[in-house]
Amino acid sequence: ATVLSWFDDLIEVKKKQNEILEKTAMAIFKSWFIDFEPFKDEDLVYNEELGREIPKGWEVKRLGEVIKIESGGSAPQREEYFIEGKNPFVRVKHLTNQPCVEDADFITDEAVELHSLKLYREGSILFQRSGESLTFARVNILPFDAYIVNHLAVIPNLPSTKPWMEFSFFTLKNILIEAIEERAGTALPYIRVSDIENKIINIPPPSLLQSFHSLVEPLFQKIILNQKQIMTLRKIRDTLLPLLVFGKLRVEEI
């Protein structure tokens, strides 16, 4: 029990680290791009589309003009497609209130080919666009390459979008909170991707966006590393548990 508790404690420490890292990155995002604190002494101009003042020289665009949002693919239904599958397949149930996806199902190569599923790279950003559980603004980083179910939308991690990823993560989170609040009390268990893409946002100059990316990307990389370690620790713990319970392994041997 002591050994298993050690694994659980270490997992909780890393989860707490990820919460702190996300909050730190969010605080920087809010300071720079919502409150404009570093730019208080610069000229601000009123923008009618946003209904507020923004720093002079910043642009205002639809989110879809700067970020590509895609939908996942159809979910394999037959049980045989999950037997001895080796390809990670992320569903709505795998989204968390943590910064990262924590788990996945695994599907066969045949399922991938049959449903023409697209593989998304580690670091892509996921959010829920439909389903009965659409009551929270869960935006997750993908900590491993995976295929994605069609109830989820994806901002692919591509070389061309890399400077935008952290900015997009927090912008998207704010947009989803607003969109879900607007649907509160309705029977609409979905969000149109087009509605998200049409949201008007302020766009900082490229040099400022790059500075934010350079500052915050190491925090996101640490979050992903922590999540990989969490998954490894869970796997080891779950492997040890039956061995300890049935006396096939003694604590002294670990």
TrEMBL record:
Signal sequence extent: none
One example GO MF annotation: endonuclease activity
Pfam families: Methylase_S (PF01420)
Domain Type I restriction modification DNA specificity, residue spans: 55-228
Protein name, per record: Restriction endonuclease subunit S
UniProt entry tagged with the keyword DNA-binding: yes
Family from the record: Belongs to the type-I restriction system S methylase family.
Entry-linked PANTHER family: TYPE I RESTRICTION ENZYME MJAVIII SPECIFICITY SUBUNIT, TYPE-1 RESTRICTION ENZYME ECOKI SPECIFICITY PROTEIN
Keyword Transmembrane helix: no
Assigned keywords, A-Z: DNA-binding, Endonuclease, Hydrolase, Nuclease, Restriction system
Domain of life: Bacteria
GO term, biological process aspect, one: DNA restriction-modification system
